[in-house]
Structures are given as C-alpha cells and as structure tokens.
Amino acid sequence: MNSKRDHQFKRWIEIFVVTLRLGLTSFGGPIAHLGYFHEEYVQRRKWLDEQSYLDLVALSQFLPGPASSQTGIGIGVMRGGIVGGIVAFLGFSLPSVIALMIFASLLTTFGLEDSVAIRGLQIVAVAVVSKAVLSMAKKSTTTLSTKLIALFALLITLLWQTAYAQIIAILLAGIIGLFLFKNNTQEKNLSSSNFPISHRMGYICLTLFFSLLVLLPILSRTFDLSWLTLFDSFYRSGSLVFGGGHVVLPLLEQEIVTAGWMSQQEFLTGFGATQAVPGPLFTFVAYIGTIINGWIGGFLSFLAIYLPAILLIIGVLPFWEVLRNKSQVKGALIGVNASVVGILISALYTPIWTNAVQTNVDFALVAILFSMLVFLKIPSWSAVIVGIIGGLILF
C-alpha cells in the first residue's frame, strides 16, 4: 500500500515538474500551447496516443473556457487522477499568475512588452504552432472530405471573427462528420484512454458548475460584498466564453473598465504584460484582481475564472471515453478533429502570425526555427532560447 502511494506521489511530482516547465516556456497563447503539449505529451513522453490527444483537444474546444488549460487538465487526469489534473493545472498556470502579479508594473515602467526578446518569443510561437498544425493535419485530414471540412472551419473562423465562430464551426463539422463518415467509422479504431474518475464525481462536478452559475449572481446582488461581486463576474466570464484567452480579454475590458474597477491605461498595461509572459492568457485576471484588491483579489480572480473550466472538464471526462467510442460519435469526431486543424490554421494566421511576422527578417527567423523543430527535431525549450537570442541579434 505504501509502495503504491509512493508511486502515485512520485507521478504527481513528475506531472508538476513537466507542466511547470511548460508553464515557464510556453509562449504564444492557447493555440501555441496545444503545439507545445503535442510535442511534450504525445511525441516525447508518450503519455497518450495521437488519437486520444486529438479527441481531448476536440472536447476542450467544444467546452466553454480555456481550451489549452482544459486539455492540460485532461492529460493530468489521465496520468494521475483528479489530483494529477489539479497538479497539471497549477504547474502550467502559476508561473504566469505570479509573474503578472509581481512584474506587471515593471513591464509597464521599463517597456519590456515591446522588447526585442519578446519579439523573438512571438516568432518562436509561430514556428511551434506551424509544426503542430503540420503534425495534426497529417493525422486528421487524410482524405479529400476531411481536408474540405478543415477548409470550411478555416473560412468560418478566419472570415467571421466572433466568439461563436469556433463553436459553430465545430458543431457543423460534427454534424457533417456524423452523416458523411457513418459507414466507414470502423476504420477509425480509437484507442482506450484512462480517465480514473467515477460517474458520481462527474455528476457532482457538473451539478456544482450549473449551481454556481445560477446562485452566484443571486448572492452577489443579495450581499453587498466586493469580493463576491468580483468572483461572480469572473466565474460567469469563465463559464460562458468560447474561444479561449484571445476572446475573453476584450470581453473583460468591456466589463471591468466600464464598471469602473480599473482605468483603461491600467487594463492595457496588464494586457501588454499578459502577452509578454508564458502560460495561459486567462491568467490576465490575476493582474486585474491584484489591481482591484491586492494579492488576495489576484488569487481569488484566478480561482473564479478557472473554476468552471475545471468543473466542466472533470465532469465530462468520465462519460467521454464511452461516448467517443460509440459508432454514432466516431463519425462526428472525424469531422470535429478535421475542423480543429482548420481552426488551428486560422489562429496561426491571426493573431499569431499577423502579430509576429512583419518583416523579411521575421519570416527568416520563423523559417530557421521551423526547420530546427521539424528537421533537426530540437525540443521546444531550445527553440525558445534560440528565439530570444535571435531577437536580441536581429532586431
């Protein structure tokens, strides 16, 4: 028994160390994070197979909240149960939370968000995402039909820049796949994934998610407590937003600045800091909470916006393994996975490519880093170092 506990504890430590390193080096936003995850968890460590990863990404894209963080939590659950999922979440998120709470003012004072090192890191994100798109496309778009679905999702998300474009593209792709691939799903043998969560725990998490979504607005209006109002605001933002951090930031600007909780300049300062640090973009709320109510407000806001994402992914995972292997669902998953490739290409172009690649020198550095990642097969952290050095030398 003690040996089993020791083994599990060592596995939790392993998860934390790996995710902490990713949290310290994963620049470029949610789509870039999926590229880093794919390389670390699927290709290097083989914690899960290609198809399980693609299906988990599809599920996370479908759920409201930060898709990359929910994917990371799901992988942590597979590796070490619920505790493993929480550990994976903390390891990946805490570096940016702490950085934003401590260094946001320094980033503003010294203008580090515009430094050449940060430009180099943005270019690293382009190379990493390009590699991820190439790898996923080889697995998910092997036929003309799946290529056309990917193109369809690309066009929707590229030409219709709204918070609902991704979810509509995924839904339509799933419906198309359900009918288009219903007769050849036998060819898609999905491997089994281990999500050690009981159905009872799943029901509890889903019930808690919906209960808080209904009760928090009532409580915040009944009791005049600033921290409760803050928690309610961020919990709703985390519950109802689709599309990840790039979507939630402008929504938060409208709610936070309009409510008078902080000035426009303070918000923009935090926005610049968020772009300059690694890790998930949702951690921007730690900056907002700290401005409003000190470090307690920072951690409270961080918990509030991530709690719905945690409850949803843990609540759904116990049922996901059964659902994804049903013949009726397999065809839909083929369509959804193909649509994710199109969404990744769209996000690769904007905002990642359009923000980072502006000159011939920028493109040259992208080409160098992409070649190093794909042909020389260097790890992502090495590309981060090369990107920083390249930024310092070239810009």
Question: What descriptive keywords fit this protein?
Answer:
395 residues; mainly alpha; 81% helix; globular; transmembrane; chromate transmembrane transporter activity; cell membrane; Chr_Tranpt_l_chain; transmembrane helix
Provide an overview of this structure.
- By secondary structure, the protein is mainly α.
- The chain has one domain (2-195, 311-394).
- It is built from 15 helices and no strands.
- It has helices at 2-25, 30-44, 50-62, 67-110, 116-140, 144-159, 165-180, 199-222, 226-240, 245-258, 264-276, 284-324, 327-356, 360-374, 380-394.
- The radius of gyration is 21 Å and the shape is globular.
- It starts with a helix and ends with a helix.
Write down the overall mean pLDDT: 82
N- and C-termini, Cα separation: 57 Å
- Classify the beta-strand content into a percent band: under 5%
What would the principal axes of the Cα set say about the shape? globular
Multimerization status:
single chain
What percent of the residues sit in helical stretches (DSSP H or I)? over 70%
Q: List low-confidence stretches.
A: none
Number of strands: 0
Largest sheet: none
Number of helices: 15
Taking Cα atoms only, what radius of gyration do you get, to the nearest Å? 21 Å
Order of helices and strands: HHHHHHHHHHHHHHH
Domain module tally? 1
Helix and strand content put the structural class at: mainly alpha
